Amino acid sequence: MAESSDVKVLGSWPSPFVLRARIALHLKSVNYEYVEENLESKSELLLKSNPVHKKVPVLLHGGNSISESLIIVQYIEEVWSSAAPSILPSNPYERAISRFWAAYVDDKWFNALRATLLAEGEEAKKAALAQVEEGLALFEEEYEKLSKGKPFFGGDEIGYLDIAIGCFLVWIQVIEKFSEMKLIDEANTPRLFQWADGFSSHVAVKDVLPDVEALAQFGLKLRAKFLKTPQ
Amino acid sequence: MEKSDVKVKVLGSWSSPFVLRARIALNIKSVNYEFLQERLWEGKSELLLKSNPVHKKIPVLIHGEQPICESLIIVQYIDEAWSSGPSILPSDPYERATARFWAAYLDEKWFPSMRSVGIAQGDDAKKAAIAQVEEGLALLEEAFAKCSKGKAFFGGDQIGFLDISFGSFLGWLRVTEKMSETKLLSEAKTPALLSWAHKFCSHPAVKDVMPDTEKLAEFSKTILARFRGAAPPKS
Questions:
Q1: What is the architecture, at CATH level 2, of domain B93-220?
Q2: Is it true that domain B8-81 has CATH number 3.40.30.10?
Q3: Known Pfam families for this protein (chain A) (predicted)?
Q4: Which fold has domain A92-226?
Q5: C-alpha dihedral (B25, B30, B33, B37), degrees to nearest 10
Q6: CA distances for A177 relative to A134, A165, A170, angstroms
Q7: Is the pLDDT of residue A3 over 80?
Q8: What percent of chain A has pLDDT over 70?
Q9: Could A74 and B96 be called an inter-chain contact, meaning their C-beta atoms sit closer than 8 Å?
Q10: So what's the ipTM on this one?
């Protein structure tokens, strides 16, 4: 097992992407040092480790720095390949499906989530919320296919797609709070509702999820800042 | 023998760099496949809509009955499903992460900046767009030195994931150079990439599927006309 000084995560507590890296490390029982970055004043280490994007998360392992959350998760899976559980399925087609939906989350669904928080005007917000719900409906369907009756997308244990989607659960709660509507609930998304509960209370997840009140406050600040800045 | 009797199809278009990725990967693995050219202006085929209902985009790889979508995911699938052929991803986890990082950069940042050159209206806009593309190429020139370690390709002696991800854009890069009358890859600024590009395009897994620059340039004029005129082109 790696010494904790060997493995560092540069992160920021509101970031769902940082959560992905942390959850993956927890799943593999890897000790690491977590470094909270001030994104308004990025550290030398962050700028040096991720010069191209200057973003969190960054995983530092031995002399290597790895950026981009899904790439980090795959790296963790491959380095600590002998540690159970496996994060990706072993079957190539199932792996492709997990990757497909994780890419959908990042390429399409995340923008809608972000827009619900940052959109100007009711119309734009409504449109964004509708897109978020569309995504959730797709996830509800995929969950049925992929979980095959087990608690997670990954089956018995949390896997790649659980991590990719689950990292947004507290943000979803914040959006539900602001928009005064339920996005994941027993009526519309019964399976996701149960899955969300299982995911959030999982030992690899529960201690790193941000507090919903704190995240809501952060969300308000983010929105205020975003709307003031010329686009 | 891996599923050699199972049919492999690629739904795509000769002009798409993303489709090219799938084809090159299959060629590396010596996998026979049927290429189904999507009609360009008459609407998407039933098979495409059924196989990729979420995005309705090419490429789609159909292996037996199973559709796989998204070009980089397809390439990784091909590497994993035909595991006895030459490896496409490196074996070292950090090198894999590096290859994936740059492939993601290409798709999210660099290719859009190259497309902007074609769309840019006016000299200033064009200059700014070109500067962005060149900035990216400078990063990739550096990345090439680190990844190739003195060998011919990002993947070393053989073409790999990053070669495919980047190389698939060379046709469009050449079109952009032609239309903007600028050399994007040059001896002066990107000597290693210039040499790599030549080797990549002459590679047996690539040369028969890389689209001809002239043909692509003509096609690009058609798209641009439609983009500026009527409905937006199929991506």
A1: Up-down Bundle (1.20)
A2: yes
A3: GST_C_2, GST_N
A4: Glutathione S-transferase Yfyf (Class Pi); Chain A, domain 2 (1.20.1050)
A5: 50
A6: 19, 19, 11
A7: no
A8: 97
A9: yes
A10: 0.95
